[in-house]
Amino acid sequence: MSKFLVLSVLVLGLATGAFAQGKGHGAGAGGGRGSGGGPPAGTGVDRGLGNASSRSGGRSDDGLSNASTKSNGRSDDGLDRARRASSNMHKADDDLNDHPGVPRALHTNANDLRAGYQSALATNPDLTFGNYVSATRLGQNLNRRFPNVTRDAILSGMASGRSLGQTLQDLGLNSDESKAARKQAEAEIKAARKNK
After folding, report:
1. Among 187, 193, 181, 189, which residue's Cα sits nearest to residue 138?
2. 38 and 31 Cβ atoms separated by less than 8 Å
3. Grouped pLDDT means (10 residues each) for the chain, 196 residues
């Protein structure tokens, strides 16, 4: 009898556990698409800022203001940089979707090109995807004749405020060589954009 009682309690316990695990799987609202859950309002670096003030009783506004004041505006600058970088990254994604031939022309794939550009935006949030692609192509075309001309060296020059032409001259090309190299890279990139 005691074995039967122990066995009954064990079966009842297992059945209850299995029933409890099954609960919640099904029609309940989870965090997936269409369930009403998901990320907070806004996009990119501003996601969630739209309703943060009302949900925190205004404390989030005070926090943003305090961060700006205590950092002498550096937190505002950081947010602005992040917004510009995010906007440029979004444009790059659109460009890559519209012109899948560009990564092939640069002997890479879209994911690696996107990752490299995202990394470059951390240093220079105003860098356009077109300039990144040009710097990549110029580095590939010129590096054998001019070993110090690399994509990173070109990007560094542009991040310091120099134009593409000025940067190439800073790296050792004369004015005519710089112009010819830019013209060649531009033609190659233009042809790649036409390839689907």
Report:
1. 181
2. yes
3. 53 52 47 45 57 64 57 70 89 90 94 94 93 96 96 96 96 97 96 86
Q: For residue 179, give every residue at least 6 positions away whose Cβ sits within 8 Å of its Cβ, in sequence order, or none.
A: 165
Are 169 and 175 a contacting pair, CB within 8 Å? Answer: yes
- The tokens for 142 are 């010129």
The count of residues in the chain is 196
Cα separation, 44 vs 87, in Å, equals 9
Amino acid at site 84: R
Three-state SS across 133-179? HHHHHHHHHHCCCCCCCCHHHHHHHHHCCCCHHHHHHHCCCCHHHHH
Distances (CA, A) of 105 to 1, 102, 112, 123, 137: 80, 5, 13, 25, 9
pTM: 0.61
Residue type, 76: D
Tell me the angle at which helices 151-159 and 129-142 cross, rounded to the nearest 10 degrees.
Answer: 140
Single-letter amino acid code for the residue at 39: P
